[in-house]
Design goal:
The complex is a heterodimer of chains A (390) and B (401).
Chain A: E1 10-21, H1 28-43, E2 52-56, H2 65-72, E3 78-81, H3 88-102, E4 107-114, H4 120-124, H5 130-135, H6 143-159, H7 163-177, H8 191-196, E5 199-201, E6 204-205, E7 214-223, H9 224-229, E8 234-244, H10 258-269, E9 278-280, H11 286-295, H12 304-310, H13 326-330, H14 336-350, E10 363-372, E11 377-388
Chain B: H1 32-39, E1 44-48, E2 54-55, E3 70-74, E4 78-87, H2 93-96, E5 101-108, E6 113-118, E7 127-134, E8 140-146, H3 156-161, E9 170-172, H4 180-189, E10 195-199, E11 216-219, H5 225-235, E12 241-244, H6 256-280, E13 291-297, H7 299-302, H8 308-328, E14 334-340, H9 358-371, E15 375-378, H10 380-391, H11 393-398
Parallel strand pairs in B: 6-8, 9-10, 9-12, 10-11, 12-13, 13-14, 14-15
Antiparallel strand pairs in B: 1-2, 1-3, 4-5, 4-7, 5-6, 7-8
Helix pairs in contact in B: 4-9, 5-6, 6-8
The chains are: A alpha/beta (390), B alpha/beta (401).
């Protein structure tokens, strides 16, 4: 069994979202700084109480987290920068958890934010990574849509998934999003609307894609005792894993890194999939959300198509999934897209939702996935958190 | 996409020129090895010298054993097509002008997964053959074709990646060279549009021209700057493929200046005159400019005791071609070096065989244009010189007589 030390005594508090904008003239520094301000306002802490800081962003250049400390007037004794896209939040949480457990920091602000000007997204694509620059982007310049189209095409052929299956994921998330004032998508989406969406990179169509936007997400990590003393609604970290470049031998990605460590994850959690009240997956595309459902063990490999047909994924349904609407309906605020699910998990587990809450939700999983370096997403991770009555 | 490429319609002169949309050209240094192989018409990938693993995308250390000893080796260009996509919305203007764009993921027999441009007849689950092409940015690009079936070479993406002479106009610079009739014939047989033949000192008899039916004779003397300028004014915007086949093969010391005047300065005048017009026309709808070809003696690499000035002028020509390639990369205009052994003609009576028949050179040139190559080596002498030079330039220098 694993030699990993338990993650006990680690609390997450203070979910923060800085309202998303489709296009913004504000910089990443502005978005991250605004999130930090909101953390301070909401928690009642003073700025110098925050002695640990972790930033994630695609648009900070030439800054890293270091430059932000001077920009924001922070003097942390623990500093991290996690550039892992959709897995950033989980990875940041895991590192912050160890820091507060070991006493390297008392309060860690985990923040992700990104700017989005009118051309930001297309400016980023050609040099997203070295392998993408050398071996995927020049092939039609479809960006992540084309890369995930290959993965979706393969998944459909291998496991018999249909566009309707992907559509069910997108449609239920839109229903969840309509109650969330921060979601950029405000219109109801039907399965007919989904199927009528034009193809972007076959089989990926319009409503499979997230809308890039500007925004920020943040939360605090501290010891359980400190969260209690602060009288902050909080959730405890019960289980967490991460894995990178999990299955390099696979010709094409049909499973994600969660499959590598799921057994240990559930052993750590001391419970099973049936004990979870809500699941937040990284939903850059519905096919990736479905892989996480399989590989975390909610159903067997290849059975997510049947699973989405058999379950209701809305907040009121029997399998509440991406309860704030996910990135598909809220928008993808760059690296903050990776934090959206974990912040929503914290909101659900502590009763601080922007939209509807799953009744009595306590145990919530956030799952991360990110960085399509060439032909597949390399980073993955998951965390199960449990809300505590205060 | 597969239908035969028809004769392009005439451009409406009242409409603005359609400018070339560049493809992204930034690559890691390792990935430039793909372009180096594509330029020579080879399929090569990095193979680890220590553990034998085939690498893709190109790396700096082996993805299996971390050895830094990665060598570009010929790899079996075969694999299985695993997935496809048709990209309809692209963030690059080049592809937005040409939707939809087919790509796929190919699993090589040697184990690597390769994203490739796709011929539309490729089927998922089926075997494919991979080809390395220079894309319009001059970078190496993998192109997948259905294995075992003859597919239309005229397919749009393939044409975009090559410089097929079909329906394109050609200028053959030196009508007095022994290669001129064979080149004129080869272009005509390849379906070229208009074929222009340059002729210096038009008052002199030109018996070779009698063999060139259908070609249009134009006044051109590359040793005269005015003559080049005048021809650019006259037909500059009609030349899609330029072949600099100038030939002044002499051993006398008194001919040294002429060798440089024709081969080196002449090439600079052609590049300076025709280059900008051709670079501006690579994006034209229908008939667009495609290639600038230099016929270069392999003596450019080897030097020569008997023909020292000629060999030096050829080396200068090779260098000029390389500079023109760098200048033209962003435009997509392909610069092609045809490295040749001694031609079988009256100027080389005293040169020992094997020699290169002009028709062999012409056919190799046409094939290189179709395949989109940047370099082709013609004749056994040139192949031997090139192979020795490529393997070890230092050793090659020592073994020159």
């Amino acid at each position: 069994m694993s030699l990993r030390k338990p993650y006990e005594g680690v609390a997450l508090t203070t979910p923060v979202t800085v309202a998303y904008e489709r296009y913004s003239i504000r910089s990443a520094q502005w978005w991250i700084g605004s999130a930090l301000r909101a953390l301070i306002d909401a928690s009642g802490l003073r700025k110098h109480d925050i002695d640990g800081f972790c930033a994630s962003s695609f648009s900070l250049a030439p800054d890293s987290a270091v430059g932000l400390t001077q920009h924001f007037g922070l003097s942390p004794r623990w500093l991290d920068h996690v550039p892992m896209g959709g897995a950033s939040a989980i990875v940041a949480l895991r590192r912050a958890a160890r820091a507060v457990q070991m006493g390297d920091a008392s309060v860690v602000a985990v923040v992700a934010g990104d700017a989005n000007g009118v051309t930001s997204f297309q400016d980023m694509l050609p040099a997203f990574s070295r392998f993408a620059q050398d071996a995927s982007y020049p092939y039609g310049a479809g960006g992540p849509n084309a890369s995930f189209a290959l993965i979706a095409d393969h998944y459909m052929r291998t496991f018999g998934a249909t566009r309707e299956d992907f559509g069910r994921v997108a449609v239920s998330q839109r229903a969840n999003a309509l109650a969330n004032p921060n979601a950029l998508m405000k219109k109801k989406l039907t399965i007919e609307d989904y199927l009528a969406g034009r193809f972007v990179s076959d089989p990926i169509s319009l409503f499979d894609c997230v809308m890039p936007c500007a925004g920020a997400e943040a939360f605090l990590v501290m010891r359980e005792d400190d969260a209690r003393a602060l009288k902050a609604p909080h959730a405890l970290l019960r289980a967490t894993i991460e894995r990178h470049n999990a299955f390099p031998e696979d010709a094409l990605q049909y499973r994600v890194g969660q499959a590598y460590d799921a057994a240990e994850f559930w052993a750590m959690a001391g419970c099973g999939p049936d004990d979870v009240d809500a699941l937040q997956t990284y939903d850059d595309y519905p096919v990736i959300a479905m892989m996480q459902i399989e590989d975390l063990g909610f159903c067997a490999k290849g059975e997510a198509p049947a699973f989405v047909r058999a379950h209701d994924f809305t907040v009121e349904g029997d399998f509440p999934h991406n309860t704030c609407g996910g990135q598909l309906s809220c928008g993808q605020a760059g690296a903050a897209g990776g934090h959206l699910g974990l912040v929503e998990a914290l909101r659900q587990a502590t009763g601080q939702t922007l939209g509807r809450r799953v009744p009595n939700a306590r145990r919530v999983i956030a799952s991360g996935f990110g960085m399509i370096n060439y032909d597949r997403g390399l980073c993955s991770g998951a965390a199960l958190i449990e809300g505590v009555e205060t | 996409m597969t239908e035969a490429h028809g004769r392009p319609t005439k451009r409406n002169p009242l409409l603005p020129l359609r400018v070339a949309k560049p493809l992204p050209a930034a690559r890691s240094r390792a990935a430039l090895g793909l372009a180096a192989a594509a330029a020579e018409g080879q399929f090569r990938l990095q193979v680890c010298e220590e553990c034998g693993a085939t690498q893709y995308p190109p790396r700096d250390v082996c993805g299996r054993c971390l050895s830094g000893a990665l060598k570009w080796r010929a790899v079996e260009p075969k694999g299985t097509l695993i997935a496809t996509t048709t990209t309809r919305i692209s963030s690059e203007l080049y592809f937005r002008e040409r939707p939809p764009w087919l790509t796929g993921l190919v699993r090589l027999e040697s184990g690597a997964s390769v994203v490739a441009h796709l011929h539309p007849e490729c089927r998922v689950g089926g075997p494919v053959r991979l080809d390395l092409k220079l894309d319009p940015a001059g970078r190496g690009a993998v192109y997948a074709l259905p294995e075992g079936s003859a597919v239309a070479a005229d397919e749009a993406a393939a044409r975009a990646f090559g410089a097929d002479p079909r329906h394109r106009n050609a200028l053959i610079v030196d009508g007095r060279a022994s290669t001129a009739p064979a080149l004129a014939r080869a272009f005509r047989e390849a379906g070229a549009g208009r074929v222009f033949i340059g002729l210096s000192e038009r008052w002199r008899p030109a018996p070779r021209l009698e063999k060139m039916e259908g070609a249009e004779i134009v006044a051109l003397d590359v040793s005269d700057p005015k003559s080049v300028e005048q021809l650019v004014d006259l037909i500059g915007d009609k030349v899609d493929i330029l072949v600099n086949n100038c030939d002044h093969f002499r051993s006398e010391a008194t001919e040294s200046r002429a060798a440089f005047e024709i081969h080196a300065l002449g090439a600079l005048r052609l590049a300076g005159g025709f280059g900008p017009v051709m670079r501006a026309r690579t994006g034209e709808a229908g008939r667009n400019s495609a290639a600038f070809v230099h016929v270069i003696s392999a003596l450019a690499l080897a030097g020569s005791r008997e023909y020292g000035a000629y060999a030096a002028a050829q080396a200068a020509l090779r260098s000029i071609s390389q500079t023109l390639r760098a200048e033209s990369r962003a435009s997509g205009l392909r610069i092609v070096d045809v490295l040749t052994g001694p031609l079988d003609d009256e100027w080389r009576q005293s040169v020992r065989p094997p020699k290169v028949a002009p028709s062999v050179l012409a056919n190799a040139l046409i094939a290189a244009l179709r395949a989109g190559r940047e370099e082709v080596v013609v004749g056994d002498i040139a192949k031997e010189i090139h192979a020795k030079w490529a393997e070890d330039p230092g050793l090659f220098r020592q073994e020159q007589p």
